[in-house]
Write a structure and sequence with these properties.
441 residues; Beta-Lactamase; Heat Shock Protein 90; 2 domains; 6-stranded antiparallel beta sheet; 5-stranded mixed beta sheet; 11 helices; elongated
């Protein structure tokens, strides 16, 4: 009986570890797990250049690798000195866009130091921000906080994993998360660079569009001015009786010329504002005493034709009695134009859009609201509006309108929030100080 040939050790390596000590076997298994994590994270992350998808994928892999119940990724906003919850997973996730100061909590401490931390008894750590747990209802027992740090660079955020399902967090878990965070940081940076490149292309395109639009609008502007001069001469030649008889026609002509001129000016402003929004820049606001009632009526006049086609009623409540306050009238117009223009297609035929206003005696501010009788929105859409990364859910939408509104509110040192339920309509609430120059937040 012939013996079988010896195994081909070169092509089929043995897994016989009997000659190794327990410590050596444990080390080998540890490196094997890390290698598998490297393989998995590299395959998953570099298949996408979408920032949101990358952040979600990173967090899911991190939780699965260490067996944690929940987790979050926070990205830094150095200008506002905040860490922003970009994505959160678990039964009670942190709402997207929630912020904490860069120097507060365990996350802030890790971000500042750039050093990871295992905290297996969170309740004994005085630096833990219990407000986040209170807001979500989640009780954090243990966590690993890992900086998302560029190679030899500053952190761009932090990765948190919470409440390991079996046993405490270990240095083995820390090693796995170190690998995951390193790959994730590289992928996030690449995604951001790709987004910046897209923004640069959009800015260039908007510049070209703005130039072409200006050229195309020049004859329109000339025609409007000619119409104004002709109307002025025509009505100027009438005697008092004829002028009285044609008073309505004169008012229609005057209103039409004003609407056309304002429309041309605002169209040019709109393109410039979109370009600035994409670039993330903004000219200093031009504050002066402003009548918000006049602003709202100007928006209504521009959009009344669109609303009339849908049999949607545009109305105000309490706006006319509001006092003037310091604001950038052009920007205020753009904010309310976006809010009302966005509400019209979401409101069924025969519905209404109401702008309400009153003086908030408790805060000494102007309180405004834009309420529609539309279809409302689900919580996942509502909760990320005006957050760090609002995403348009409309076909062909860019999300720029929402960002422009938020930029206007921020420029006025105001506040905005939304109430909405599916089938029950949507209400946007805005608060503006009487004088942004003296408002301290």
């Amino acid at each position: 009986m012939t013996e079988p040939p010896p195994p081909d050790r070169e092509n089929h390596p043995t897994t016989d570890f009997t000659h190794l000590s327990k410590a050596e076997v444990s080390a080998l298994l540890h490196y094997k797990t890390q290698f598998e994590a490297v393989e998995r994270i590299s395959q998953a992350l570099f298949q996408s250049i979408d920032l949101d998808e990358l952040v979600e994928t990173t967090l899911r892999i991190a939780l699965e690798e260490v067996g944690a119940e929940a987790g979050s990724i926070l990205l830094a906003d150095p200008e506002k000195e905040e860490l922003i919850f970009q994505y959160s997973i678990g039964e009670k996730p942190v709402p997207r866009g929630t912020t904490i100061p860069l120097d507060k909590g365990i996350s802030g401490s890790v971000f500042q130091s750039g050093e990871a931390r295992i905290t297996n008894q969170v309740t004994h750590d005085t630096s833990h921000l219990h407000q986040i747990d209170q807001a979500t209802g989640l009780v954090t027992h243990a966590m690993i906080t890992m900086p998302l740090r560029r190679w030899r660079g500053e952190p761009i955020g932090v990765l948190n994993v919470l409440n390991k399902r079996e046993g405490p967090f270990t240095n083995h878990d820390l090693g796995l998360l170190t690998i995951i965070s390193a790959f994730a940081t590289l992928a996030i940076q690449q995604a951001k660079q790709f987004e910046d490149a897209k923004k640069a292309e959009v800015v260039t395109l908007l510049g070209d569009i703005g130039h072409d639009m200006k050229n195309m609008l020049t004859p329109v502007q000339t025609g409007v001015e000619l119409l104004r001069d002709v109307a002025k001469d025509l009505f100027g030649a009438m005697n008092s009786a004829e002028l009285t008889h044609n008073k309505t026609n004169k008012q229609i002509c005057d209103d039409s010329v004003e609407i056309a001129q304002n429309g041309i000016r605002r169209l040019n402003d709109r393109v410039q504002e979109m370009a600035d929004c994409v670039k993330g820049v903004s000219a200093p606001p031009n504050f002066a005493l402003c009548s918000v009632g006049r602003v709202i009526l100007g928006v209504f006049r521009t959009l009344e034709g669109l609303a009339r086609k849908r049999q949607i009623t545009l109305r105000t409540e309490g706006i006319e009695s509001l006092p003037e306050f310091h604001a950038d009238e052009r920007r205020l117009y753009n904010a309310f134009y976006n809010l009302i223009n966005n509400a019209i297609p979401e409101t069924p035929d025969g519905g209404s859009i109401t702008v309400r206003g009153h003086r908030d005696q408790d805060t000494g501010s102007i309180a405004l609201a834009v309420a529609d009788t539309g279809r409302g929105m689900p919580s996942e859409v509502r909760d990320r509006l005006f957050s760090a990364k609002a995403i348009s859910t409309k076909k062909g939408g860019t999300g720029l309108g929402t960002k422009i509104i938020k930029d206007v509110v921020d420029a006025h040192k105001g506040k905005i929030w939304v109430e909405s339920e599916p089938g029950l309509g949507t209400t946007f609430h805005l608060r503006f100080p009487f004088d942004p120059a003296t408002k301290h937040s």
